[in-house]
Amino acid sequence: PILYSYFRSSCSWRVRIALALKGISYDLVPVNLIKDGGQQFSAEFKALNPMQQVPALKIDGITISQSLAIINYLEETHPNPRLLPQDPKKRAQVRMIADHIVSGIQPLQNLSVLKQMGEKKMEWAQNCITSGFQALEQILQHTAGRYCVGDEVSMADLCLVPQVANAERFKVDMGPYPTITRINKALLELEAFKISHPSRQPDTPAELRA
């Protein structure tokens, strides 16, 4: 497999965690979203992913973009360890939390949106994350065990950790979100989350390395 990724992309990070958890080795091709006006806009990368976004994964003779589509494919082809619970109710909760983050928070504070916000980008990102986290904190109070849904790592957790990192980058006060904070801390202790961290990627700038 070949993963097209950017060290700081939260969507790429979700996929790196899934690959690490499932023990799938891969080659990484960095796509710098800032350098050269954004390498994702090159003709070469557009041919690979017409949405001009990372991540993209070449695997089993196909190319998949969109992080949840990639994670779902990995789940179906490499079912252990599972990232979706067997219980249909818990599985629905995992998908709900994942969608809450990947549709309701992350795209609103994404690089392409922030570029258009000009001087207000920090304030905009903080507002988007805060309103999303207020809802997420309430949801997790009903679903969480050690992790987002019960005590097994799931797709929801793969989405949570990168989003908390975004929140910290945009200086969001995490005080009002004790459940999110507790789960994030527990997940960051797991090896798959450590090795996939933005501070430990081949394309991480020297000053941001762990």
From TrEMBL:
<dbReference type="InterPro" id="IPR005955">
    <property type="entry name" value="GST_Zeta"/>
</dbReference>
<keyword id="KW-0828">Tyrosine catabolism</keyword>
<keyword id="KW-0808">Transferase</keyword>
<dbReference type="GO" id="GO:0006749">
    <property type="term" value="P:glutathione metabolic process"/>
</dbReference>
<dbReference type="InterPro" id="IPR036249">
    <property type="entry name" value="Thioredoxin-like_sf"/>
</dbReference>
<comment type="pathway">
    <text>Amino-acid degradation; L-phenylalanine degradation; acetoacetate and fumarate from L-phenylalanine: step 5/6.</text>
</comment>
<protein>
    <recommendedName>
        <fullName>Maleylacetoacetate isomerase</fullName>
        <ecNumber>2.5.1.18</ecNumber>
        <ecNumber>5.2.1.2</ecNumber>
    </recommendedName>
</protein>
<dbReference type="InterPro" id="IPR036282">
    <property type="entry name" value="Glutathione-S-Trfase_C_sf"/>
</dbReference>
<keyword id="KW-0963">Cytoplasm</keyword>
<dbReference type="InterPro" id="IPR034330">
    <property type="entry name" value="GST_Zeta_C"/>
</dbReference>
<dbReference type="GO" id="GO:0006572">
    <property type="term" value="P:L-tyrosine catabolic process"/>
</dbReference>
<feature type="domain" description="GST C-terminal">
    <location>
        <begin position="87"/>
        <end position="206"/>
    </location>
</feature>
<dbReference type="InterPro" id="IPR004045">
    <property type="entry name" value="Glutathione_S-Trfase_N"/>
</dbReference>
<feature type="domain" description="GST N-terminal">
    <location>
        <begin position="1"/>
        <end position="82"/>
    </location>
</feature>
<dbReference type="Pfam" id="PF13409">
    <property type="entry name" value="GST_N_2"/>
</dbReference>
<dbReference type="GO" id="GO:0006559">
    <property type="term" value="P:L-phenylalanine catabolic process"/>
</dbReference>
<dbReference type="Pfam" id="PF14497">
    <property type="entry name" value="GST_C_3"/>
</dbReference>
<dbReference type="InterPro" id="IPR004046">
    <property type="entry name" value="GST_C"/>
</dbReference>
<dbReference type="InterPro" id="IPR034333">
    <property type="entry name" value="GST_Zeta_N"/>
</dbReference>
<dbReference type="GO" id="GO:0004364">
    <property type="term" value="F:glutathione transferase activity"/>
</dbReference>
<dbReference type="InterPro" id="IPR040079">
    <property type="entry name" value="Glutathione_S-Trfase"/>
</dbReference>
<comment type="similarity">
    <text>Belongs to the GST superfamily. Zeta family.</text>
</comment>
<keyword id="KW-0413">Isomerase</keyword>
<keyword id="KW-0585">Phenylalanine catabolism</keyword>
<dbReference type="GO" id="GO:0016034">
    <property type="term" value="F:maleylacetoacetate isomerase activity"/>
</dbReference>
<dbReference type="InterPro" id="IPR010987">
    <property type="entry name" value="Glutathione-S-Trfase_C-like"/>
</dbReference>
<dbReference type="GO" id="GO:0005739">
    <property type="term" value="C:mitochondrion"/>
</dbReference>
